[in-house]
Amino acid sequence: MEKLIFPDLYCPFPSQVNQYVDVLEDYAFEWVQQFNLLKNTSEYQLFSKAKFFLLAAYTYPYCQIEELKIANDWMSWLFVLDDKCDSSDLGKQPELLKTLHSRFLEIFNGSEINKHDIPLSHALNNLRQRMLQIGNARCFNYFAISLKKYFDGCVLESINRASTQVPDFDNYQMIHLLSSAVDISIDISEFCNHHLVSDFVRNHESIKKLKMMTNKIICLCNDIFSAPKEMASGDVHNSIIVLHFQHKIPLNQAVAIVANMHNQELQSFLDLQASIPYFNEEINHEVTKYLSGLHTWIRGNFDWSCNSGRYQTGTMQNQIPAQVA
């Protein structure tokens, strides 16, 4: 495999980590073991190597321990589901995946657990109950919408895998914005910090665009770090791989294009953020807190990707430096 060499990624936001990171590391394994989410030693080793607890600690640096545990468990749940799709034929069976997702949504919306439900369903029910104890119904409803969008994106990916086709770049980007779970992660930020923004802020065109741009920035960053892993597994759902096939260009040229797209998108994010007008003290306080959540996710995802072993295959540089303004 061609050794990939990555240029610097622009990331002007400061690194932060939650004060409870060490507590979270021990707790993370207790929760997945409680619900039997890891079936064997190999899965346990992959989970340990990935350090999902670090992702939660980096991306939710301000929240208290119980909220942080819920955020961590969502990260674990989503990645365990993703790995089960990757390691079995489930990820290539869209109808079966739809059935599974439908049951998950039923449970998340209040359906009782039964004897036929799998461990992931029991873990999801636990997450639902804990979220309802801490959050409010409005926050919960927004989260349910984002969860449905994530499932839709996963099904679209499975359709591509089943057809063995490489999607075109625009189609891939559309799917990745859904299947990235970034919208879920931003909703968790509101939940964890007990900061549910008003409808005025949520529906403002600039805020909606900044949220979408955050998703795109994180997707491009993820594609850069995960490209060797996905090439090794034969998965084409990566912008570097899509560009390589679609334009018949060398992989390192595709890497440079994607890195440049990431950096340009982040600069556009900063430019748009700077153009947000003053509304009033209360609304601008909401906007500032919401944008802080976007910043910590962009930076935290980058920092986790640098420190996690999830994407290390020995075919890429282990360190991708960030340009800090």
Description:
Belongs to the terpene synthase family. The chain has 14 helices and two strands, in the order βααααααααααααααβ. It has 325 residues and is mostly helical. The protein has one domain (9-323): Farnesyl Diphosphate Synthase (Orthogonal Bundle). Residues 314-321 have low confidence and may be disordered.
Shape: globular
Mind describing the biggest β-sheet? 2 strands, parallel
Helix count, DSSP H or I runs of 4 or more residues: 14
Helix content: 55-70%
CATH topology heading: Farnesyl Diphosphate Synthase
The mean pLDDT is: 91
Q: Work out the count of structural domains.
A: 1
Give the CATH class.
Mainly Alpha
Spatial order of the strands forming the largest sheet: 1-2
Indicate the CATH architecture: Orthogonal Bundle
CATH homologous superfamily caption: Farnesyl Diphosphate Synthase
Determine the N-to-C terminus distance: 34 Å
- The counted number of beta strands is 2
> Spans of 5+ residues with little confidence (pLDDT < 50)?
314-321
Order of SSEs: EHHHHHHHHHHHHHHE
Q: Which structural class do you get from the secondary structure elements?
A: mainly alpha
Radius of gyration: 19 Å
SS strand fraction? under 5%
